[in-house]
Amino acid sequence: MKYTILFLLLPFWGSAQQISKVTLSGTIKDSKTKGTIPFGNIQLKTLKDSILITGTMSDADGQFKLTDVNSGKYMLIVSYMGYKTRTLPILAGSLSAFLDLGNVELEEDANTLNEIKISGQQVTGISNKMDKKTFSVADNISQGGGSVLQVMKTLPGVSTTQDGKLELRGSDKVAILIDGKQTAITGFGGQTGLDNIPVSAIERIEIINNPSAKFDANGNAGIINIIYKKNKQDGFNGKAGFNTGLGALGQKKENLPGIRPQYQNTPKINPSLSLNYRKNKINTFFQGDWLYTQTLNRNEFAERTYDTGEIIRQQVKRNRITTFAIAKTGLDWNMDERNTLTITGLFNREKITDRGDIPYFNQDLTVSSRLWQFLEDEVKYTASASAIYQHNFKQAGHTLNASFNYTFHREDEKYFFTNIMPAYTGEDSFKLLSDEQVADLNVDYVRPLKHGRIEGGLKFRRRSIPINMQFFPGMNSPIDVNAGGWADYSETIPALYGNYVYESNKLELEAGLRIEYVKVAYKVNPNHNTYKSEGYDYAKPFPNLRIAYKLDDRNKISLFYTRRVDRPNEVDIRIFPKYDEPEVIKVGNPALRPQFTGSLELGYKNNWDKGYFYSALYHRITDGTITRIATQVPGSTLIYNVFQNAGRSYNSGVELLIKQDLVSWVSVNANANVYQNTINAFQVENKYPVPVTYNAALQKLVSGNLKINGLFHLPNKLEAQLTGTYLAPDIIPQGRISSRYTVDLGIKKTIQKGAGELFLNVTDLFNTLKIQKEITGNSFQIKSKDYYETQVFRIGYSYKF
């Protein structure tokens, strides 16, 4: 039956959460005097066969602690000379890393033995609670040497939109964290820059579909947490690596006439270095990566048909060069047994140079009406510093954390456009400067209980983004003369949260509440021709609830409920038009408001000796759905894409995962995600550059994705991985996107007695991946296919020392 399910599903790569480690703590006391008993003997044995797992003695205050205990059922045996030995049934589980067994009272030894009823911590033996999936980047051989974005595309339930954004279960509202925090590198509340973060810097990736109240409330689809590498071995150690590759070895589709060549044989270079030194109370670390890539970033061929009968054929070709350098360093200082301080610093520089050509022709390519060439020179700087203080109370797992994080992020962008018309040539340019500053203060408190834990905390954020856009029009410029100007974005968010976790032999409960107050102000120059200063504020509760019932040691069902919010990012409301192409223009909307989502999920997991099966039914309802709406300006062929709140939408589906070791050297992981996206009928008005009303009918489509991953352990320390992905057709704003599929292959060999690794891989082995979509507007239709670079061959080497 297990094998039948496996081959019916088609699937994913990855690994389930590893078995959690638990720390047990308590205090030995005299049952009559209530005084503590020092230097008592504590043993932990398996419940089934009484095998000794670990042991310790209580300290001078009668307290004891057992660390690194695997999840499972045990007997805790407590003894002391002159007292009766006590045996406690213990269930160490996965919901809490620290369990407080409370007071273990011993009776003086007399001739009469009394049976003593003891209540200890009782927890499931199943390792994960189905709210999070963890994936080791080192296990992903087929994507080694690439970017974090490339790795994420292969994860279960993850897909990409037509513009390269990640989706979880059909929604692109995903919060991206680095080491548990929002950063300017990936965006505060959004997702940016993932295609430039080298995977060589990353230890693992976590997918959290149903976050607890401890996390920020943004991201209705969930959270993806990227964990950077950090070693804590004693002494001096580290890892150095180098990988390189080539992409775009051949043309998927030739250019339209008269434009500059597409990038081919594009190089990729990525050296990396990780260092760590640990001695006594100090641990210092450094992680450095440099990434250079050339990419055919976009190669889209489109046909636009207007109600007037006019047909325009065009191509958007964008050659990109990216240089990405990042350095992260810091130290951990164990001041004493109770107090630690961690200080980290991060610096990142990202430079992107885009050179593009956009020709415009009639339907049969006999008449060229325009050639638009552009150069975009963009540099981003990010510098952040954080300090984290942790106080450990005497009870194991009883902690108080306080942290402060400051981030400075600069965007320095220059755009140069050459507009070649039959009668003249014009040149225009923009310069945009944006300095983002973010200060976060967090306080978190955790206290273990006999049956779980309580946790709570507060957060305060202050964020500001002043922007200055300068426009330098050329001769006969087609660009809006008011395209430049200034704007100031500011955001203040105080938040409080509390969370309670309870575990028993059959039941698990996690309930939390986060209360956020948000105040956003967006000021624009008073003489703007369309938009005025805007802002909003709200105070909302965001509850989360998880109830799980353990049918037995191998089967568990869970019910989740969460309420979350997606606030517009600054770029979503930015008033300055972005000319990716001269006749389809993107612009923000200061009147855009947050969207709120309620999510309900029912999950089931079954473990067996050589694998597991997981399924989830989910349903999300979103009010104020944020999306882009394209409308045509009357009397012109110009199309403007403007962010709007489109009303209510729904996302319902089922996710199925399975892992099975077929034989000792072959392991297969599989994932199927099928969902229905529905957007109710709505009406909006695009105000820029002139008011245009758009009416949309109800949209509904069943879509999904299928992924399969095979891992092969071959002789001579050789490993291979084959990954296949299929994305079904889906709806997008005002249209639909067609199906896509790809196959990736990787091979890795361990050398130098385990210290070295060699790998070779290729993404999109058969060069089949392209994006095909159709969009229908108020008086036009666009059909397009994007043959951007997807096939890349890479080879790399790393060495641990």
Automatic annotation (TrEMBL):
Protein's recorded name: Outer membrane receptor protein involved in Fe transport
Q: Which UniProt keywords apply?
A: Cell outer membrane, Membrane, Receptor
Q: Which range is the signal sequence, renumbered to this chain?
A: none
Which Gene Ontology cellular component annotation is one that this UniProt entry carries? Answer: cell outer membrane
Compartment(s) of residence: Cell outer membrane
Q: Which residues form a coiled coil?
A: none
Q: Where is the TonB-dependent receptor plug domain?
A: 142-222
**Alphabetized PANTHER family for the sequence:** PLUG DOMAIN-CONTAINING PROTEIN, TONB-DEPENDENT RECEPTOR-LIKE BETA-BARREL DOMAIN-CONTAINING PROTEIN
Question: One Pfam family for this entry, by name?
Answer: Plug
The protein's matches in Gene3D superfamilies, at most eight in alphabetical order, are given as: Carboxypeptidase-like, regulatory domain, TonB-dependent receptor, beta-barrel domain, TonB-dependent receptor, plug domain
Q: Which InterPro entries match?
A: Beta-barrel_TonB_sf, CarboxyPept-like_regulatory, OMP_b-brl_3, Plug_dom, Plug_dom_sf
> Which residues belong to any copy of the Outer membrane protein beta-barrel domain?
391-799
